[in-house]
Structures are given as C-alpha cells and as structure tokens.
Amino acid sequence: MTDDEGASAAPSPSGIDLARQALAQARAAARERGASPGPRPQQRRRGRVRSRRDPQPFGEAVRAWLAERGYAEQVAVGGVFGRWSEIVGEFNAQHLRPVSYEGGELVVAAESATMAAHARAMARDLIRRLNEELGQGTVHTIKVNGPGRGRGAGRLRAR
Questions:
Q1: CA separation (Å) from 98 to 46, 60, 66, 80, 121?
Q2: CA distance 21 to 76
Q3: Is the pTM of this model over 0.85?
Q4: In terms of Cα–Cα distance, which of 67, 81, 63 is closest to 21?
Q5: Predicted confidence band at 21 (pLDDT cuts at 50, 70, 90)?
Q6: Alpha carbon separation from 37 to 58, 78, 124 (Å, rounded)
C-alpha cells in the first residue's frame, strides 16, 4: 500500500463529530456577532415572574438558553448532521456527507462524480426535507462538491 492509498482510507467523521463541529462553528459565529455566553441584562416581564427556584422542564430551559445565545439554528443543523442517514436514506448517506452549514448554505461532499450529479438532481427535494426538519427557509442553497479539486462543484437554490 502506498502513502496515497493510506491517506484516502481515513474514516469519515461520525454524526456526533459533525454535530460537534457545527456547534463549534455556531459558537464562533455567535462570538463574531457579539452574542457571547455570559450574564444577560435584566428585562422586565409582564405577568407572573418565575423564580429561579421554580422548576421548569429541562427541554424548555435548554431551548430558551440556546435561543438567547444565538445557537438554536446551528444546534438544529448539527442534529441533522447526526441524523443524516435518516434524512437522505442509507444509500445516499454512504456516498454523500454534509460538510458544513453557514448562512443558509449546506455544503455536501460526494465521493464520486456520479453521486455528485445524483445529489444535484435531488437537491430541491433535499432542501424541502431539510426545511421540514429545521424550519422553512433555513436551508436555501446546497453546494455539492464532487471528487477532485474544483471539479463538480455547483450551487442549487430552492425555488
């Protein structure tokens, strides 16, 4: 086996690794926007004021915390990365993998030119399915990267 063959046999990242990468990207994007974790200014609320000691559902508390810090969309996208095979199907998941998401653009890597063409053909359906999972308008562009440098790249927009 040559060095080139060993380099191409590297395992692709798992769904958990992709979710962690998406969360790290979300944190970096939030820092760039100035939305960093830390104390929030007090806001007056109308109605019953909930004490910190009052119990609240865990999921509700986590969703509120993520929304306050601007991480909700990126965490949702990370969840999609983790469930990629459920969304695109087992066959497609074996040959296509999500690489990144930023500003409504999902970048997908295809292992062959044939799979890149297949991904482009199903892009509108994939955008529709992703927006059903994440909320309308979250994903508006899919960029498909084929094998090789610069070959097979193309953007497809939802209509």
A1: 43, 28, 22, 9, 16
A2: 13
A3: no
A4: 81
A5: confident
A6: 19, 19, 36
What is the residue-wise DSSP string for 100-131?
EEETTEEEEEESSHHHHHHHHHTHHHHHHHHH
Closest among 108, 111, 44, 102 to 77, alpha carbons compared: 102
Can you state the angle between helices 58-68 and 72-82, rounded to 10 degrees? 120
Tokens of 5: 């063959």
| Cβ-contact 108, 46 below 8 angstroms | no
H or E element at residue 63: helix 58-68
Going by C-beta distance under 8 Å and a sequence separation of 6 or more, which residues neighbour residue 24? none
Give me the phi and psi of 35, to 5 degrees please: -95, 85
Written as six digits, the tokens of 82 are 């983790």
Strands (E), the chain: 96-102, 105-110, 141-145, 154-157
**Residue located via tokens 């909700």:** 72
